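Run: sequence + NDP -> complex structure.
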Amino acid sequence: MFGLIGHLTNLEHAQKEAHKLGYSEYANEGFEFWCSAPPILVDEFQVKSVTGATIEGCYIESCFLPEMLNSRRIKTAIRKILNAMALAQKHNINITALGGFSSIIFEEFNLKENKQVRNVELEFERFTTGNTHTAYIICRQVEQASAQLGIDLNKATVAVCGATGDIGSAVCRWLNQKTDVADLLLIARNRERLELLQSDLGRGKIMGLEEALPLADIVVWVASMPRGVEINNETLKKPCLLIDGGYPKNLGTKFNHPDIKVLNGGIVEHSLNIDWKIMEIVNMDIPGRQMFACFAEAMLLEFEKWHTNFSWGRNQISVEKMEQIGEASVKHGFKPLLTFS
Ligand code: NDP
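>> structure
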């Protein structure tokens, strides 16, 4: 069995969807209530591969909200993730993906030091961040969507916002090794980490977001922002491809311009329908088939019986591992989302 640990994008979203997740009594409760709410296993389902194999899975709602980070409720955020992991382990789940901010909190606050959660000793090999598959899917989206739009990668400038992150650095490594993109712009806040990445890659220009946007033909958004940023479309090149892999989304602006194309980044479409609730709740266009690539990674690990923390630690994702999970992804019928929103 595989597991998915997830969370909703803000308090309003969590309140609105509480009844669909089966706990309508939470719908009118405020922030403090959500801070003390325990994780809940809310959905169980089957996933069929195009190979014919079928696996069982479940979704665990951690009741974490990104506002907990904004309001510096760090201990609360940590408790949410550890409790959700302990719940997955109590259900004897082989491999569980830590979706969205779950893995970010795990890494940021060094939770590998917190193995004991009451009477459960966490076995980290049962968990994966899912970031290797996410990075692979975003890279395939860069390659395939740019071709659709007639953007020639070997003449293109690609900006990566969140370049020093786990997903961002993997995307940079892939673009550097596997494509001939003309220029890479590296965006994040911590200068030291940017310089380290630049030296590892042996290329790339370190830039602020405002300076980079007018130069970029393609922008990959993989920054861990609790809220989306507003962008003026005047500042963007035309045409421009924006691939937003953030959860919650990095882009706070809806664009209405024929030459600005936005793609939901790190999203895959499965070839066969899944009867589950969660993807409708997070507003996927085709909830029976579309999902976060990190969730799909847990499915791939279960299909292949690779019961190991395939994606673990920060900035460890190699191009070889992206290729390995990519092959499994194709084999079991997952495709990168290529429809613009
Ligand atoms: P990390 O924490 O590893 O990296 C985050 C990156 O964002 C760092 O480079 C950080 O650098 C940068 N960053 C944070 N805030 C800002 C800011 N305001 N401006 C510019 N850069 C910023 O995160 P992950 O790589 O694990 O995840 C990235 C995003 O992808 C998250 O939104 C996450 O929820 C989403 N995600 C999506 C998945 C999917 O399946 N689609 C799966 C997993 C994650 P610095 O702090 O120096 O600024």
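>> summary
The chain has twelve helices and 16 strands. The radius of gyration is 19 Å.
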